[in-house]
Amino acid sequence: MQLSELLGCTVRDTGSRAVGTVVDVRLSITGDLDDSPSAPTLFGLVVSPRTRSSYLGYERSEANRPMVLAAWLRWRHRGTFLAMWDDIGAVEPPVVRLRPGFHRYSAILRTD
């Protein structure tokens, strides 16, 4: 499966209720990033409950400029969350199913 096949998939909870759409993927890389980084692994999926469109990277930080665009994107993607890969129960495009008891994590990337 290619990661691009996940984009646009409907995400459903254990009760088969739609909770959103996959709008981005998160990858993890370990090791020395300058010398010999490991192969990327899938960390999680960014799920938006209100739109199928990209967040244009604004969910990755607390960026607020340009102010009008940032505010509009925050409003449009309110409720967006990160579902960790361990919380994914099944991937059957065009549907991704979450495991029971999944947790909604913030989609903002943090360096601390």
Structural Rg:
15 Å
Main beta sheet:
6 strands, mixed
Task: Write the CATH fold name.
Answer: SH3 type barrels
Helix content: under 10%
Q: Which spans of ≥5 residues are poorly predicted at pLDDT below 50?
A: none
CATH superfamily: PRC-barrel domain
Strand content: 25-35%
Number of domains: 1
Total of DSSP H or I helical runs spanning 4+ residues: 1
Query: Mean pLDDT, as a whole number?
Result: 87
Strand order of the largest sheet: 4-3-2-1-6-5
CATH architectural grouping: Roll
- Write the H/E string, N to C: EEEHEEE
Going by helix content, strand content and strand pairing, the class is mainly beta
Tell me the overall shape. Answer: globular
Annotation, overall tally of beta strands? 6
Report how far the terminal alpha carbons are from each other.
32 Å
CATH class call: Mainly Beta
Descriptive labels:
112 residues; mainly beta; SH3 type barrels; 6-stranded mixed beta sheet; 6 strands; globular
Compact overview of the structure:
With 112 residues, the protein is mainly beta.
Question: How does this structure look, described?
Answer:
With 112 residues, the protein is mainly beta. It is 9% helix and 31% strand. It has a single domain (3-31, 39-98), classed as SH3 type barrels (Roll), CATH 2.30.30.240. The protein has a 6-stranded mixed beta sheet with strand order 4-3-2-1-6-5, with no helix packed on it.
How are the SSEs ordered, and which strands pair?
Elements: E1 10-12, E2 18-28, E3 41-48, H1 67-76, E4 81-84, E5 88-92, E6 95-98
Parallel strand pairs: 1-6
Antiparallel strand pairs: 1-2, 2-3, 3-4, 5-6
